[in-house]
Write a structure and sequence with these properties.
mainly alpha
């Protein structure tokens, strides 16, 4: 194996281990924080902040302009790229922050929010800080320094969103507890990152360099704008049609969905995008790895989504409390699409890493249109459950559409792709149907469904998982799995070699 490829692979594996460990810690902390805040704040207070975040998230697309992603994707960068990226990003962040401050009253009026203008204006401070931090994050990502970012993420979440929000919520700061918690997290992140990557600035701009940064960056921003509307169409529809209290309920259902989605998605986005970018010309390798990632996606996440569907009431009661029962049904609908949601992240990262940034923007535009159309129709006729169904339909259609485009680009095996989806559906859907059958006969006890999961569903899934016909541990993925396992730290390899199932990958 080429030493450069081996080095990149080992750095990628190390990054995955760091990101995986950090994500586990952050997921546990997030579950604890959600549980505490759900008991200290009301659905209406969560809904108010969710409405504010709709515009904040949108404005941040312009404040960063994809400059950080351009630094990751460009084959080579110089000190001039870095200094100009810092200066340009900070300048854009200040402009967007000022504009956001000025339009705050119109935001509140559109969503019929009262006495929250100052809270919306406060978010103007976020933009220059996040723009500045995005460049440092991009440089650390490009250099595969994932351990730094993991430490930063864990520390900022614990002391920012976690500790700050909980203390302020306990002191009756209402929705301000959520806002100030996010701000504290941002400040900690910025200070932490500056310690490891010193920023550089310049007042002299080089046109060719600006063109490189902004060409990819503008395409990235265009795609991000459409992706924003795709990701937030449900929140906009719920906030406008159904009100902030219902939006607070929906935001909790979506947050529970996003925990497993982010758990796996963050590993892919943070670690594999820079590695894919370094191999963007090797289509055969990208093709094999695409099928491998889809088998991981559906082989792992589909069983998780069915398990959550079966035990949704127990999960909501445990994490949020009995007062959040309205979260259960939309969560069950949303969680069915978990694997397809992660699949769309894989597709998006592939398009971006291959430089097909404007093609990606086109597909994001279609995705946004699908989301708005499905959510408006579903919300108008069926309320909150209808919105959740609309999200599910739009997500599946987008995944299939972009997968077909990648098939044209990469020429991966169509038969293998269809086979892994067919196997996944035939082994998981029967459990979903069986659960609905029990609901029909009024068997709704959360403890009954938990026992059935532990005694029936889990053993069958474990048997299928370790079976040789499993979509992950098949002959097509053998070489990739072997390379990954051989790139693990020696201490971990020793333990894997003791397990009979994994010995075959070290022969």
């Amino acid at each position: 194996m080429d030493k450069k490829i081996e080095s990149t692979t080992k750095k990628g594996i190390s990054g995955m281990l760091w990101t995986f460990s950090g994500t586990i810690i952050q997921t546990i902390m997030q579950l604890l924080v959600i549980g505490v805040l759900a008991r200290l704040l009301t659905p209406d207070e969560f809904g108010i902040v969710a409405v504010m975040m709709i515009l904040v998230t949108f404005s941040e697309l312009f404040s960063q302009m994809g400059i950080g992603s351009a630094l990751i994707q460009l084959p080579t960068i110089t000190s001039k790229h870095i200094s100009q990226a810092y200066s340009l990003s900070l300048f854009i962040g200040l402009i967007i922050g000022l504009l956001f401050y000025l339009i705050a009253p119109w935001v509140g009026a559109f969503f019929e929010l009262k006495n929250v203008d100052n809270a919306i204006k406060f978010f103007a401070l976020f933009f220059p800080l996040r723009s500045f931090s995005s460049i440092t994050t991009a440089l650390l990502t490009r250099n595969l320094r994932f351990s730094v970012m993991v430490k930063c993420g864990v520390v900022s979440y614990i002391f920012g969103i976690g500790l700050t929000s909980i203390v302020l919520a306990y002191l009756n700061f209402s929705f301000w507890a959520l806002i100030l918690g996010q701000f504290a997290s941002l400040l900690i992140t910025m200070i932490f990152l500056m310690y490891y990557e010193r920023p550089r600035f310049t007042l002299v701009f080089d046109k060719p360099i600006l063109r490189e940064l902004l060409f990819f960056g503008s395409g990235h921003t265009l795609g991000s704008i459409f992706n924003y509307f795709a990701e937030n169409a449900d929140n906009i529809v719920v906030g406008k049609l159904l009100g902030t209290t219902v939006l607070g309920v929906y935001s909790k259902a979506f947050q529970l969905l996003s925990i497993p989605a982010k758990f796996f998605g963050s590993i892919f986005d943070k670690v594999l995008f820079p590695i894919l970018s370094k191999n963007q010309g090797k289509k055969e390798k990208l093709s094999d790895f695409y099928l491998f990632m889809n088998s991981i996606c559906f082989g792992l996440l589909m069983p998780i989504s069915i398990a959550v569907f079966i035990n949704a009431k127990l999960i909501v009661d445990t994490l949020l409390g009995n007062q959040w029962q309205e979260v259960v049904f939309p969560l069950q609908i949303l969680i069915i699409g978990l694997s397809y949601r992660f699949g769309t992240k894989i597709n998006k990262s592939y398009l971006k890493s291959m430089g097909l940034i404007y093609r990606g923007a086109y597909y994001q535009f279609i995705f946004a249109a699908l989301m708005f159309g499905c959510c408006i129709v579903g919300g108008y006729f069926f309320g909150l459950p209808g919105v959740a169904v609309g999200v599910l339909i739009a997500t599946v259609l987008n995944y299939l559409q972009v997968s077909y485009r990648l098939y044209i680009e990469l020429k991966f095996s169509k038969l293998t792709f269809l086979k892994l989806h067919l196997i996944t559906l035939t082994t998981n859907i029967p459990f979903l149907v069986f659960t609905l059958f029990l609901y029909y006969f009024e068997v709704r006890s959360k403890w009954t469904h938990l026992i059935l999961t532990l005694m029936l569903y889990a053993p069958i899934m474990i048997f299928i998982f370790v079976n040789k016909s499993n979509i992950i541990f098949n002959t097509q993925n053998f070489n990739i799995l072997s390379q990954i396992l051989r790139s693990l730290p020696n201490a971990i390899q020793k333990n894997f070699k003791k397990v009979r199932f994994f010995k075959q990958y070290y022969v």
